[in-house]
Amino acid sequence: MRHVTGTLIAYYFYCKRRMWLHANEIRFEDNSEDVAMGKLIEETTYQERNDNYEQIELEGIKIDFYDPKNRIIHETKKSPKFEETHVWQLKYYIYVFLKNGIEDVKGILEYPTERRRKMIELNEKDKAVIENLSKEILMTISSEECPGLLSSLKCKNCSYYEFCYANEEEY
Ligand code: SF4
């Protein structure tokens, strides 16, 4: 059975075509400097705190830093450029924990480069949003039809650009 993942949630907000391509194993994600920087921030930020955290895998999501004592999921991001996406990814993780009987979990979103952190909670309205969003994601990625081009400035920074625009006018 297919599961919604944190990556699919992120791509849902970024571009539904990218979400479909990724879900259907057409992958062009790169090991760009941004990804490497994100990993470095994550590793160095938590270097001294690792003993307090567990790695958890549940229904297609993988949490690297879960604090079981305080029931907090920590997520570190390089920049707040896609903050809305980060918030919904974290709410989705809390939702999956809840579905699996782990209650009263909260999230902390951290932006070390800005020395900023944000507490994330899941309310009843969020649950309804996530349920609809999950249905839409599963329906889209199961379709035979790949969603059309986004034709947005986002395309220029996307690792799928060459693939998407090979036979198109440049955007
Ligand atoms: S290049 Fe544009 S249309 Fe293609 S996957 Fe990326 S964002 Fe979507």
Architecture overview:
With 171 residues, the chain is an alpha+beta fold. It has a single domain, classed as Lambda Exonuclease, Chain A (Alpha-Beta Complex). The chain has a 5-stranded mixed sheet. The termini are far apart. The site of iron/sulfur cluster has 11 residues, from α2 and α6.
Please provide a brief summary of the model:
The chain has about 170 residues and is α+β, with helices and mostly antiparallel strands. It is built from six helices and five strands.
Question: Which key terms come to mind for this protein?
Answer:
171 residues; Lambda Exonuclease, Chain A; binds iron/sulfur cluster; globular; alpha+beta
Gyration radius, to the nearest Å? 17 Å
CATH topology: the name is Lambda Exonuclease, Chain A
Overall tally of domains: 1
Q: N- to C-terminal separation?
A: 36 Å
Q: What percentage of the residues does DSSP assign to strands (E)?
A: 15-25%
CATH class label = Alpha Beta
Give the topology:
Blueprint: H1 6-14, H2 16-23, H3 33-46, E1 54-58, E2 61-67, E3 72-76, H4 83-99, E4 106-111, E5 116-120, H5 124-142, H6 161-165
Parallel strand pairs: 3-4
Antiparallel strand pairs: 1-2, 2-3, 4-5
Helix pairs in contact: 1-2, 1-4, 2-5
Bound molecules: iron/sulfur cluster (SF4).
